Amino acid sequence: MTRREFLNSLLLPAGIFRAGRVSCAQTRRHRAVRRAAAGPLKLERVGVSSSSFRNSFYATRDAATPANGASLALLDFPEMIAGRYMVHSLELVARHFASIEPAYLLELKSSLLRARSRLINLAVDARELESGGGLSDPQAGARESAIAATKRWIDIARQLGARSVSCHPGAADPDNLQLTVDSFRQLAAYGRAKGIAVLITNRAVADASYFDAPVSICRVVGGTSIGALPGFGDFPDDATRMRDLPALFGYAHTICHATGLKLDASGNEMAFSFPRCVQIAQKAGFRGIYSASYEGDSDPYPAVQGVVAELLRVL
C-alpha cells in the first residue's frame, strides 16, 4: 500500500459507500488519526453546507423521495458536522431555519459556539427570491420585496457572525442587466454597512449565456461587498464549466461550492474533474472556504464524506 492509499484509507474508511451509515460515535483516537492524516490546514479550508441534507429538513423535504434517516434540526447541525466530518466551517440555508425569532437565533449561535464552529455563508432562498423574477423582476414591487427579504437575511447573517450571504439573481436578462445590477448595488451597500459580503450564485441555470451575468454584475457594482459564488457542479456541461469558472473565481471572496454529483465507491467525482476545478481556484488566488455539498440521489451522509475526502486529496 502506498502512503497516499494509506492516508486515503484513513480519510474514507472502507465500506463508507455501502448501505449502512458511518456512526457518529467515533473514538477520540480515530478522530485524532484522521485529523493527523488530513492535516489541520487543509481541514480549515473545507466547509459543509446544510443543502446536502435538504431531505432531512422538514421545510425542504421532497415528498416523492424517501427521507434519509431521521429528521434533522438546524440547532443540531453544527455538532453533527463537527463530530462526523471534523469540519467547523458551515454554510446554512435560510429555509432550514425553524425560526428567525431572536431567541432561536441566539440558540443557534450558542450551538455554533459549542461545536467550536463558524458560519461562513448564509444561502438566501427566501420565497420572494424564487417567485417571479426575484431580484431581476421587471415589476418594481416584486423586485423591492426580494431586496427587502435579502436585507433581512443580511441582518441575520450579521447576528450569527457570518462573512457573507448568497442569493440567485432570479430571471436575469444577460443582454440587459440594469435592473439586476440596481438590486445588487442596493444589497452591496446594505451589506457593506453590516460587514457582510453579498455573493451571486450561478446555481441551477441551464442557459450557458447566463454565466457571464455574475461577473458582469460584480464588475459594474464594484468593491469587495459584492462577489461571485462559483459552484463546481452548477454548469450544464464541462465545456461551460472550464470556460467560466476562471472568471467567476476572479470575484470569489469567501466561499465556493465544491459540489459532488456522481461519486464512485472510492469517493471520486465522476461527472467532472475535481482536481481541475481546484486548480482553477488556486490559480485565481482563491483563499476562501470550499463548501462541500452533494446533489446526487444517494445517502448524503457518506456522500458528503466522499466530497470532503476528495477535497483533502487535491488541496
Defining traits:
eight-stranded parallel β-sheet, disordered N terminus, globular, 315 residues, TIM Barrel, alpha/beta, 43% helix, 12 helices
Characterization of this structure:
This protein has a single domain, classed as TIM Barrel, CATH 3.20.20. It has twelve helices and eight strands. Helix 1 crosses helix 2, helix 8 crosses helix 9 and helix 10 runs parallel beside helix 11. By secondary structure, the protein is α/β, with parallel strands linked by helices. The N terminus is likely disordered.
- List how many beta strands DSSP finds: 8
The CATH topology corresponds to TIM Barrel
State the oligomer: single chain
Straight-line distance between termini: 22 Å
Structural class: alpha/beta
Which stretches are poorly predicted, pLDDT < 50 over at least 5 residues?
1-33, 204-209
Text of the CATH class: Alpha Beta
Strand content: 5-15%
Rounded Rg = 19 Å
Concise summary:
This protein has 315 residues and is of the alpha/beta class.
SSE arrangement:
Elements: H1 3-11, H2 28-38, H3 40-43, E1 46-49, H4 77-85, E2 89-93, H5 102-114, E3 118-123, H6 127-130, H7 140-159, E4 164-167, H8 178-194, E5 197-201, H9 212-221, E6 226-229, H10 238-249, E7 255-260, H11 274-283, E8 289-294, H12 300-314
Parallel strand pairs: 1-2, 1-8, 2-3, 3-4, 4-5, 5-6, 7-8
